[in-house]
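Incident log, entry 3
Record: von Hippel-Lindau tumor suppressor homolog (174 residues)
Problem: checksum mismatch between cached and fresh output.
Input:
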Amino acid sequence: MSDGSMDDDGRLFPDLGSSTHDNREIRVRFLNRCAYPVDVFWLNPSKQPTKYGTLAQKKYLDIKTFKDHPWVARRSFDGCKVLVNEKEVFWPEPAPRMNLIVRNHCVITMKVQSLREIAGRSFLRHNPTEVPNKIKGLPRELQFEVKHFLDRKQEYSEIVCRSIPPPGPQRPQQ
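Fresh output:
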């Protein structure tokens, strides 16, 4: 069963990177429609996620990017995947006419999760040292899933800490 935070091959982020074949600037507005904060990442040419900002519910982030620059979003507190325009990876497209400036609106929404996944992830809000005692009564398979979620949350935290914010004044709307 997928835990919702990883790609099918077990990674928190897809194995994609940016290229620079098209240098036309594209304006994008990411709008968070989730009930929780989300982190917005650009996947750089080295295939590493670069965090551009954290968006609270109903807040937005305006950025300038290019075609062939993939973007993803993750739930801030645990790295669970969310959707950008109903897809796991957003690929910006330039305006149909060269002299037309258009802002692409990208709506970030929750990904559908099973009840089992939601229940397992509910333990992530507890202090990690308390979780083993709280899950003792669960079947062994569910205990392993909760421990897996905790490991992924830790891995996500480490990635976010390593991620270097982009230069310049582009920041989330307050």
